[in-house]
Specification:
six-stranded mixed sheet; alpha/beta
Length: 167
């Protein structure tokens, strides 16, 4: 009897997934077939070279990997564009001799999302996240890569959730 419940549940899940009512990324039904991610320019006061291209590619990869949408260079039904508006490193805690014990890297991205199929879904929003690292480290090399990975993973996932998953 217990096995029958599992078989019925698995069959129901596969049926719903196969007829596009549900998928494992949580996006629901997407009316569009194509998306376009325009280059996110780095307009922050403090400029870290290369993060603009890294962010643009991370957003493209996330959408391609979690949907069946096709990436296009122009004329996309879903258009992602914007800029990196803030890149900041600030001390968070201090030691007794007035040195930074912990620093925080913060990045803010301004997104302009356009849904050409449903104009009501279009919006403009800021996304921000941070990464804390030791005051003994410089935000370069492995520390910077790890920080960018953490920040960009969170921001791109938040963008994905707001534009496609509607969470």
């Amino acid at each position: 009897m217990k096995n029958i419940k599992y078989i019925v549940a698995l069959t129901l899940l596969l049926t719903l997934s196969g007829c596009k009512i549900y998928n494992f990324t949580g996006t629901g039904q997407i009316d569009a077939k194509t998306f376009q991610v325009n280059y996110f320019i780095n307009n922050a006061e403090l400029v870290e070279p290369g993060i603009d291209l890294t962010f643009t590619r991370r957003l493209q990869d996330l959408i391609q990997n979690q949907t069946n949408l096709s990436l296009t260079n122009s004329g996309g039904e879903l258009v992602y564009e914007g800029e990196i508006v803030d890149y900041r490193i600030a001390p968070m805690t201090a030691t007794a001799d007035q040195r930074a014990a912990q620093n925080r890297l913060s990045i803010t991205v301004l997104l302009r999302f356009s849904n050409r199929k449903k104009e009501d879904d279009s919006f403009e929003k800021r996304y921000s996240f941070f990464y804390d690292f030791s005051g003994n480290q410089l935000p370069t090399g492995a520390t910077l890569r790890e920080g960018l990975d953490v920040i960009f993973e969170r921001i791109t996932q938040d963008i994905f959730n707001d534009t496609l998953a509607k969470w």
